[in-house]
Amino acid sequence: MRPVLAALAALCLSATPLAAADIEAGRQRAETCVTCHGADGITADPSIPSLAGQRERYLQWQLVFFRSGRRANPIMGPLAADLTDEELRNLGAYFASLPRANPPSGAPDPALHEAGKQAAARHRCASCHQDNYGGSQAAPAIAHQTRAYTAKALRDYRANARPSVGVAAMNEAAGGLTDDDITALAVYLERPE
Amino acid sequence: MTRTSSARRKRVVGPAILAAGLMLGGGAANAQLKSYDSSKPSFWQNPPPDWFLGDETEAQKGLAPPVGPATPTPLAELNDNLKKIKLPPGFKIEVYASGIPEARQMAWGDNGTLFVGSFGATNVYAVTDKGGKREVKTILKGLNMPTGVAFRDGALYVIAIDKLLRYDGAESKLDEMPKPVVVYDDMPPYVAHGWKYIVTDKEGAMYLPFGPPFNIGIPPTSVSQIRRVHPNGQAEIIALGVRNSVGGDIDPRTGQYWFTENARDWISDDLPSDKLNHVTRLGQHFGYPYCHQGDMPDPKFAMGHKCDEFTPPALNLGPHVAPLGMKFYTGNQFPAEYQNNILIAEHGSWNRHKYQGGRIMRVTVDPDGKNAKQEVFAEGWITGNQEYSGRPNDILVAKDGSILVADDWAGAIYRISYSR
Predict the structure, then answer these.
(1) DSSP H or E stretch at residue A111
(2) Does domain B78-418 have CATH number 1.10.443.10?
(3) How far A164 CA sits from the closest chain B CA (Å)?
(4) Could you give the CA distance from residue B122 to residue B254 in angstroms, rounded to a whole number?
(5) What are the residue boundaries of the structural domains of chain B, listed by start?
(6) Is A37 among the annotated ligand-binding positions?
(7) pLDDT tens, B131-172?
């Protein structure tokens, strides 16, 4: 390479946009993840959350929690243990970039669905998760996850077994949920439309 | 953990029993007053999630506390952010240390170690200077919101929601911190408004805020106050009627306690104002929940009280600016007119459509609290209607007279210096 070109190339490198997460690097790093979370970030196992189209900041926080052990999980803990900040940002950006899962198939029990709708209104889930439950910022999309996963997440928040993002919000919001609320919310949120 | 023999004995006040559904007139005629029965243990375990899910109107829907990046902002991006910070002529801001997740209150050790608390990260950090390069070490992990730190007589004090912990000889044991002594733990365990700040006075007593676990309501008599805890674990109430305070300092001119206070949410974008308060007499009542900003009876909770029953603020700082850590400037680097001015780190809004705060304010005020006025000292961390590049939350004067600023959003500490 001629000196001028080399200098130009160096200049271009140094002018790379700052800290923009790298989706392609995230895709490559995600090879381990897809074993459980599905090739497109959409899981076949109802106990495992789909990550496709999830909020980037939420995903990154969960990886931080797994890495530090604050969200204890025998599989995710070791997998996240060695992630660098950069890898973790890229993984979040990659899964957030994928199209979201469709609602699980099958018609929900209408009474449970209605009870879940009312519980969501009473507990004001939409204040952070938005009217379509698609999430915002670090508040995750909660629509279209399987009922098994949603119910476990709510029980874990209620029991302080997993940390809220940022402030105590989710632990507090889940603190007042009954078992019936959780069952109904989990059904409703599979298909809130 | 070990426990001092005195830690358990000093119950200031037990949980209050509150009548539900108080309807004592005043404010909206038929408004059902929210009140909370704190007589049951369940109140303390799961306070109502009311501080962020308040009485919002349809127009306020969607205003929720923003959550920062999951990882500290990389150095190159921090440097870029700081280019946009506006300061008075002669002042300069630079990154002092980065890679400090959720950095909160700062305190100097006797030998120049900078101790830093954190918010949800559960860590306490030590920042040491290695020939002009700063090394960040996580010295404590797994604490419950250890937002406040102080240093006194060779010991590091950490406040983690409901435990005031002392780590003796901390500065020489950064690689392996000693087991802490619990100095004081008569505090409720809830997280909401339970994160604290430590102000140490000349005698070594520590001022701790006790916020109510909700936005607005009749607080249990054991919270909504400032207590002063002595190193032997003895405690007393300094101020009452205080909502969420996460900052304060002792006026070097008088030895009196000043503190910042975050006002209630969900009234409007422009009401009420956050406050700077000045304690001149033990047990003064600062108005919460009856009166805000010195002149605004609460629409529901005034309950017949008039604002002139309470101690007014020394200065109203503005609505939803979130004043947190503050320091009287006692260094000898800034221009002489800054001497004994108060520098306040404003964390910035969440309960407002267009964020404000997220900056550092300079307050000049007489020792008796008169003639208070404020001006912007450093700004530029708000990058959109509801966007931050950083959120200042604490200030510390350095030995050379520069100041350090902690930013829990970016996970960084900045240094602001002055040269002619």
Answers:
(1) helix A110-122
(2) no
(3) 9
(4) 35
(5) 78-418
(6) yes
(7) 889 999 999 999 999 999 999 999 999 999 999 999 999 999
